[in-house]
Amino acid sequence: MAATRNVMRAVRVFEFGGPEVLKLQSDVLIPDPKENQVLIKVHACGVNPVETYIRSGNYARKPALPYTPGSDVAGVVESVGEHVTAFKKGDRVFTIATISGGYADYAVAAANKVFPLSDKLDFRQGAAIGVPYFTAYRALFQKGCAKAGESVLVHGASGGVGIAACQIARACGLKVLGTAGTEEGMNMVLRNGADQAFNHREANYIDKIKEYTGMGGVDIIIEMLSNVNLAADLQLLNYRGRVMIVGCRGSIEINPRDTMSKESSIIGVGLFLATEEEKHECATALLDGIEAGWLKPVVGSEYPLEKVAKAHEDIIHGGGARGKMVLLP
Predict the structure, then answer these.
(1) Which of these, 63, 1, 8, lies nearest to 31 by C-alpha position?
(2) Is the pLDDT of residue 4 over 50?
(3) Where are the alpha helices (DSSP H) in the chain?
(4) Dihedral angle at the C-alpha atoms of 26, 74, 52, 299, nearest 10 degrees?
(5) How high is the mean pLDDT of the chain?
(6) Which end of the chain is more exposed for a tag (fewer CB within 10 A), N or C?
(7) Mean pLDDT of 303-309
(8) Residue 131: CB partners within 8 Å, gap ≥ 6?
(9) What positions does the domain Enoyl reductase (ER) occupy (predicted)?
(10) Buried residues in 138-149 as b, exposed as e (16+ CB within 10 A)
């Protein structure tokens, strides 16, 4: 909980590096919401792989140091700045971005990045919506041009983005295949919209997918670990199939001829490049999904703020994703 007067706990990064650079401080000033901003008392904050890439300094975007990580916050509005009419103190909300950082007791966000949190979802689920669901929707429809009746393979389907992609694709009429690294993960994928699940730790799992899809292959692949899977993904595609690059942790060698034989596409997905109109489109579709009941985030590992370094270690080196990782201030 926040300390006396106007200070709070927040995780601060003073230099780029490994998880050990995440420092929990208890004397950080609670930010004041400025014009068109909202101050949120954080009940849960999602942890995303991209936050580990940014922290390491090996990412396209580098925030000015020091900074507090975290974009996917769920909590209760504490106060609002001038000209904010959509929210008031006490409202349950979630965000897709913060200004001050979400790994903290309180966070400031722009009012247009804040959305009402339905009573159908708890705060931990609210913290699992932002980056995963907006990324999955963008990958499938805004960049991947998915259509009802097409097939999608979600590679790494038991994590936050993977489960989001399965739920969205199923709700929108696609045939869904998913991979995971454990029996538990595969069962989770099946419970969340996949027609079939495969264990990507089995040596012959690519052959099993080919056998299942037959001559056609899949129309879209949502790829979380392209530095490992991209060359094999190109073998799994249908004609004019597309691989959506959502995650990557290094380089890989591919044969471009594999794209020519099927006129397939490799398309990068970066949520931070989405326009305001695109984000609004995502938000509208996802809020409808919450109301309809098909958008149900699965929460995995939970960590207190004190264990933030462990969370960053586990999200990269853990033994297989099982839902969305969250921090609980």
Answers:
(1) 8
(2) no
(3) 49-56, 123-126, 130-137, 160-171, 183-191, 205-213, 226-236, 257-260, 276-292, 308-317
(4) 120
(5) 95
(6) N
(7) 98
(8) 46, 48, 50, 71, 72, 96, 160, 161, 271
(9) 17-327
(10) bbbbbbbebeee
* Gap between the Cα atoms of 1 and 57, Å rounded: 30
Question: What does the pLDDT look like over 13-44, one tens digit per residue?
Answer: 999 999 999 999 999 999 999 999 999 999 99
Residue 155 half-sphere exposure toward CB, CA atoms < 13 A: 29
Distances (CA, A) of 49 to 39, 53, 113, 324: 25, 7, 20, 11
What's the pLDDT at 5?
Answer: 67
Cα Dmax for the chain: 66
What's 118's DSSP letter? P
Tell me the CA distances in angstroms from 237 to 173, 209, 259, one per residue in order: 19, 11, 9
Residue-wise pLDDT for 217-264, tens only, equals: 999 999 999 999 999 999 999 999 999 999 998 999 999 999 999 999
Which domains, ranges and CATH numbers included, belong to the chain? Answer: 7-128+297-327 (3.90.180.10), 132-272 (3.40.50.720)
Does residue 88 carry a pLDDT above 60?
yes
What b-and-e string marks burial along 232-245, b requiring 16 or more CB atoms within 10 Å of the CB?
bbbebbbeebbbbb
Reported as a pLDDT band with limits 50, 70 and 90, residue 209 is very high
3-state secondary structure of 7: strand
Residue of 23, 116, 45 lying closest to 328 (CA atoms): 45
70: left (phi over 0), alpha (psi -120 to 50) or beta: left
